[in-house]
Amino acid sequence: MRSTFKVLFYLKRDKQKVNGMIPLYCRITVDGQEVRFGMKCDVNPKCWDVEAGRATGRTTEAVNTNALVENTKSAIYKIYRELQERDNYVTAEKVKNIFLGINAKQQTLLELFDSHNKEKKELVGINFAKNTYQRYCIARKLVANFIFYKYNLHDVSLKEVNGQFIEDFDVYLLSQCNFSKNGIITIQKKLRHIIEVLMINRYLN
After folding, report:
1. Burial environment of residue 120 by CB neighbours within 10 A (0 to 12, 13 to 18, 19 or more)
2. Which of 72, 103, 126, 174 has the most other CB atoms within 10 Å of its CB?
3. Residue 36 forms beta bridges with which residues?
4. Beta-bridge mates of residue 195
5. What is the pLDDT of residues 27-64, one digit of tens each?
6. What residue ranges define each of the domains in the chain, with the CATH number in brackets?
7. How far, in Å, CA of 88 to CA of 135, rounded?
8. What is the pLDDT of residues 102-158, one digit of tens each?
9. For residue 90, which phi and psi values (nearest 5 degrees)?
10. Could you tell me the pTM of the whole model?
11. Model confidence pLDDT, tens digit, residues 154-180
């Protein structure tokens, strides 16, 4: 899924220093959502082209500033393209975190399914029925097949599991798997339970 994407460099004028220099900032925008971060570089406002988003002149400072801007822009665009190819959910925050080296790995739906099913498997015969465990395994397989069918991906971020996702999964079960209405309800209950587990864990943590 394509998204709108923009990278802008600007001077944060409300942070002007005593010597008149102003910190340089970068702003990343994806689908209207913005994130900003400092470039650890100060610029003389008299030598800054607001429209071009770069320093003017041929001084060493201007050359170094523009090199920083171009290298940063190139790296951010590369990260964005790689996320577009690999994921189905790209945010400005994710691009920024990867660029800054911040670990922002998103837990995925099938990872959560696997963690849940592994835990329940160990409880089979103790306080968890074997046939219930098997239904969760079937639900996990159907969700995986749906993700590949719908998005051509092997997994999705939990942020993508919304009402539309569940509705599309319903349609998939009905049209591609020939499930009855009752069968769909049974599978969806398993998926919703996984989502509830996620919400409980977030609350407790």
Report:
1. middle
2. 72
3. 27
4. none
5. 999 999 999 999 989 999 999 999 999 999 999 999 99
6. 5-100 (no CATH), 109-204 (1.10.150)
7. 27
8. 655 567 889 889 999 999 999 999 988 999 999 999 999 999 999 888 877 888 877
9. -115, 130
10. 0.53
11. 888 777 788 888 888 999 999 999 888
Name the amino acid, one letter, at 123.
Answer: L
Instruction: Report whether 11 contacts 48 (CB < 8 A).
Output: yes
Counting other chains too, the contacts that 30-33 makes at CB distance below 8 Å and 24 or more residues apart are 30/3, 30/4, 30/5, 30/80, 30/90, 30/91, 30/92, 30/95, 31/3, 31/4, 31/91, 32/4, 33/91, 33/92, 33/93
Distance from C-alpha of 73 to C-alpha of 90, rounded to nearest angstrom: 17
Can you give the pLDDT at residue 104?
52
Name the CA radius of gyration of the chain, rounded: 24
Q: Which two tokens stand for residue 140?
A: 């996990």
Residue 58 is encoded by which pair of tokens? 């041929």
Nearest C-alpha neighbor of 154 from the set 168, 139, 144: 144
